[in-house]
Amino acid sequence: MSELPGRTQPLLEIENLHVEYRTLDGIVKAVNGLNLRIDEGKALGLVGETGAGKTTTALAVMKLVPTPPGVITAGSVRIAGREILPLGDAEMQHLRGNQVSMIFQNPMASLNPVHDVGSQIAEVIRLHQGVSPREARVRAAGMLRAVGIPENRAGDFPHEFSGGMKQRVMIAIALACRPRLLIADEPTTALDVTIQAQVIDLIKSLKRDYSGAQLLITHDLGLVAEMCDDVAVMYAGRVVEKADIAELFQNPRHPYTLGLFGSLPNLKKSVHRLRSIGGLSPDPKMLPRGCPFHPRCAERMDVCTERTPSESVVGAGHTVCCWKYSESGGTR
Asked: In a structure prediction context, what are the per-residue pLDDT tens digits for the chain, which is 332 residues long?
């Protein structure tokens, strides 16, 4: 992925990433040649249906793909110019929490139930900043305050917090050492709408106060519009379209992206039934030949069933993987 004139070194750059899960039932091809970049100070939304490979992508960036059965078979992941895939466990332990942190999808499963939340935040601070246990505890209380939880609750255990407050604790842990890259995997899932709004406001304020870059993983296009600068649409383990927010929302090109927007309610129009994308996402153990979206695509051409489209530039910073926009094209 070559640098464009005037562009700075990306904080996160992923090239041709392939991840698969080798199970007894077959090989699950979760990520298939993914390319992605996030510049310093930017927030990128990664959207797509369940099973598109979004969470696996995040786990690959953190080198937390469960092995076995997961295997990163090819590709490159660079954080601030440093290739991380060859790094060992000790080097990655130093990187995680310090350079890159992740807010996991389910805070109830991510927090340790036998340690109070203050200790769990302090552990990250002691590991990466080399301070005394007492100083780490003081800083942990300060992080709780930063995410809107009273300091006197540092001694409480996870079961004593609501779902929204658990998510705030996870955010405090992720940001304890001011990482340059923050990954948020469905940060508002399973939260009621009031708490969702509070968490969204919190993450937005943290982006402003802590700088760095953010990767937001979600299937909620409204959330992406509110929080992100750029967006990448993922399908069957590949990014099929990417652009900045204004360009993608005003001028979506890929048939899958158009289907996603078509399924959203429009307050200006009264419709009896929302549109949906026909069919189902492909089984990652048996991906179709050619473009993986072609079995569901009303605009498919002959070439779509035979060859996978490469990335085509359709505007400033706007790329799409579809034969409709390829110079080589195809016949219907």
From this structure: 444 444 567 899 999 999 999 999 999 999 999 999 999 889 999 999 988 999 999 999 999 999 999 999 999 999 999 999 999 999 998 888 888 999 887 777 889 999 999 999 999 999 888 899 999 999 999 999 888 899 999 999 999 998 888 888 988 898 888 888 999 998 877 667 777 777 788 777 777 776 678 999 998 888 899 889 999 999 999 999 999 999 999 999 999 999 998 887 766 777 667 677 888 889 999 999 999 999 999 999 999 999 999 999 999 999 999 999 986 554 33
Closest CA to 111 of 57, 180, 161: 161
Distance of CA 303 to the CA centre of its chain: 31
User: Which residues make beta-bridge pairs with 17?
Assistant: 34
Amino acid at 77: V
User: Taking a C-beta distance cutoff of 8 angstroms, is the pair 286, 302 a contact?
Assistant: no
Q: Are strands 26-38 and 43-47 parallel, antiparallel or unpaired?
A: unpaired
Upper half-sphere CA count for residue 231 (Cβ side, 13 Å): 23
Does the N-terminal peptide bond of residue 5 adopt cis geometry, omega within 30 degrees of 0?
A: no
List b or e across 167-192, with b for residues whose CB sees 16 or more CB atoms inside 10 angstroms. bbbbbbbbbbbbbbbbbbbbbbeebe
The three-state secondary structure class of 217 is: strand
Contact partners, residue 171, CB within 8 Å, separation at least 6: 103, 147, 187, 199, 202, 203, 206
Residue type, 289: R
